[in-house]
Design a protein that fits this description.
Order of helices and strands: HHHHHHHHHHH
Radius of gyration: 20 Å
Distance between the termini: 68 Å
Number of strands: 0
Oligomer: single chain
Structural class: mainly alpha
Largest sheet: none
Helix content: 55-70%
Number of helices: 11
Shape: globular
Length: 214
């Protein structure tokens, strides 16, 4: 049967091209939209123009007025960048006690914890790229500000270890009957892990900073 078929392999479309096409569609329709809103849709479409147009239609039908990033996130069930920022901040502050209320807020909002882990992985990768002088993927302005801020607050060695721990938790998170417990354990390990700066100080004869200290 395969010998009688002609196969076409289509390449995925980049988020910038999808965003620009969505902008063209909205200009024709006379609809205003934030650039970040279109970029979030473009990244969510994962290379599919048809999917992007379908999501755009859903977002437009959800409310009136200019299309905002907040409305897109609400329609797609995505959490705000502030949520990811709060998680990275509690890790930088070595505040394990803040893990539980943070996950409480995610649970109360009905967030998909597997999606949260995936979003954290993308952020950590972007942070590493910034730290090593590479240009991260195209992202919303608020996300880029978060990445730049976190790149200064976390040592690159620590970010690599966080990614490693996240990779170890990925499959248990997907398969567990209690994914909340898996995510909480991951965040606790992040907050409690030894820091590269402490290890360097210890090797140089200094005293490491305990977790939870200022």
């Amino acid at each position: 049967v395969m010998s009688r078929l002609q196969r076409f392999d289509f390449r995925r479309i980049g988020p910038a091209a999808i965003r620009d096409r969505l902008r063209q569609v909205l200009d024709i329709e006379g609809v205003e939209a934030e650039d970040d809103a279109l970029l979030i849709i473009a990244r969510h479409a994962d290379g599919g123009m048809r999917d992007a147009l379908s999501v755009l239609d859903q977002c437009l039908s959800f409310g009136e007025g200019p299309l905002t990033a907040a409305r897109v996130r609400e329609v797609l069930g995505l959490v705000d960048d502030e949520v990811f920022g709060a998680i990275l901040d509690l890790v930088a502050a070595r505040d394990p006690g803040a893990v539980f209320p943070a996950v409480d807020r995610l649970d109360a909002a009905g967030a998909d914890l597997v999606e949260i882990a995936g979003g954290l992985a993308e952020l950590l990768r972007a942070i590493l790229m910034v730290q090593y002088g590479a240009e991260p993927p195209l992202m919303a302005e608020s996300t880029r500000q978060l990445v730049d801020r976190a790149a200064k607050a976390h040592a690159s060695e620590d970010v690599v270890r966080m990614l490693k721990l996240l990779g170890e938790a990925e499959q248990p998170l997907r398969r567990s009957a209690n994914p909340r417990l898996v995510l909480e354990t991951l965040l606790l390990r992040w907050a409690l892990m030894d820091r590269a700066a402490d290890l360097k100080a210890l090797l140089e004869g200094g005293a490491p900073q305990p977790a939870g200290s200022a």
